[in-house]
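REQUEST FORM: STRUCTURE PREDICTION
Request ID: SP-0412
Submitted by: Lab K.M.
Chain count: 1
Length (residues): 329
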Amino acid sequence: MRFKRRSKRRGRLLVGVRPLPTMITLCNLLCGFGCIVLAMRADNPPSQFHGFSTADCLYVGSLLIFLAMIFDVFDGQVARWTKSTSKFGMEMDSLADVVSFGVAPAVLVKASIDTMGTFPIPDRYVWMLLAVYVCCAALRLARYNVESETGHRDFFFGLPSPAAAGCAASLVLLITQDVQHHLPHWHPSAIGTSMTWVEGWREQCYEIVLTGMPFVLLCLGILMVSRVHYIHMGDRLLAGRRSLMHLLLLVLLLVLVAMMHEVMLAVLFNGYVIFGVVNELRYQLFPSTRPEGWVASTEELLHHGPSEDSPEEPKKPDDTAAAPSGGAS
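STATUS: Completed
RESULT:
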């Protein structure tokens, strides 16, 4: 009898792990960790890299968040292709997402505020705003784990965490690129001295974006835990059979992102966030415009059951299908 109990206990402890999807998920986690390390070194760039500046640290850290999105997309796809989806993989993915799409963007924004100029808001308020974002990202991922089996194929309830992180990273990328290429000798005391009117206009835009980033992250955190409907952009753009013109437009979009990534990523991710809010207002004010299978809340979905077009198997809580294709693919 004692031997049987021991064997059962060993059976519960020996949990098999699928190597390939787990390794991709760990790459997602390491990208978030690398972003945090670079953000912490922004005020003292690594000396072993000649010419590596503060703006370069923030720039590479922003790109690591977008790289984490790519890994976050592929770990779920690889798990489905290899038929190796598991509860362990779902939990592992959520833990990696908390770091890459919750903690890393907040640390990146805080490093940008501390190193890119004089900030008009007291530091304690900035910490509070960024802490709200981190907490909301963790709550959003936990809620998605619980509600994943009753999810709708066409909508997310709340802003997906990769889209929120992409929005924050794109703003940091925008101001660091502006400093590197257009204002290489920027300093707060230089305003109005040797700048042309174009450089002065860029400087004002730079100041607005930098000052507004903590409040943007606060809004992103609130949207993550809200019931605003966000469509699955990945399914809308990539799933199913599409026309040749659709493919050409996607190729054109990818070319624009490759040529002007610092601008296009900010436009795509921030546009996706605003589009979801506008769409929600339209659905609430004009119920006749709601698409088929639209539900007002998760409680209503639980009451009526999953819609007919919902997938048969539970969806992996990677939140990545809603990220704009230009930024996360």
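NOTES: The two ends are 55 Å apart (CA to CA).
Reviewed by: T.R.
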